Amino acid sequence: MRARGVVIVLMVAMAVYLVLLGQRAVWLIGQGGAVSVLLGVGVLILPFIGVTIIVSEWRFGASAERLGRALAQDGWTPEADPVLSTLPRRPSGRVDRTAADEVFAIYSARVESEPGDWKAWYRLGVAYDLAGDRPRARRAMRQAIALEKASARPGDHGETA
């Protein structure tokens, strides 16, 4: 829950920044002159890019959290996983990278044996995340989200057939 609060504060700060940036862009456009207008239009594009990125990241986080809750309802959490919970940790609390690399073989094998199982991809993403490999963790989570959405049938999320 603490992470969500930090994200909300950062989102509000970003929204304020984007509004101020948009105001500056409108001011530049209002100055007239080719250079000011072009610069203003260029600056006006930045808030739209920022909002697109924020919405995309928010949706990714919400989807990953939803999948985590679904697995927790099935009784799986990283803390309860017999492999992940026994990984040695450094004094900082981070998982030892060498030990985590060995774990990837287990989770990768599960993904290879069941490439259409979103739960296997989610667990692989968690394993990557624990080891600090964020790019691979995000790719695995995105794959899990896509597979879960593809496997959803009408009625699973309040839809009717």
N-to-C SSE string, H for helix and E for strand: HHHHH
Number of DSSP E strands: 0
- Specify Rg, calculated over alpha carbons: 21 Å
Q: Low-confidence runs (pLDDT<50, min 5 residues)?
A: 157-161
Can you offer a commentary on this structure?
With 161 residues, the protein is an all-alpha fold. The chain has 2 domains: 2-73; 84-151, Serine Threonine Protein Phosphatase 5, Tetratricopeptide repeat (Alpha Horseshoe). It has 5 helices and no strands. The protein has helices at residues 2-30, 34-73, 97-113, 118-130, 134-151. The longest helix is centred in the first third of the chain and has 40 residues, at 34-73. The protein is elongated and about 65 Å long. The two termini are 35 Å apart. The relative contact order is 0.08. Mean pLDDT is 87; it is low at 157-161.
Give me the secondary-structure topology.
Blueprint: H1 2-30, H2 34-73, H3 97-113, H4 118-130, H5 134-151
Helix pairs in contact: 1-2, 2-5, 3-4, 4-5
Which key features would you list for this structure?
Serine Threonine Protein Phosphatase 5, Tetratricopeptide repeat, disordered C terminus, mainly alpha, 161 residues
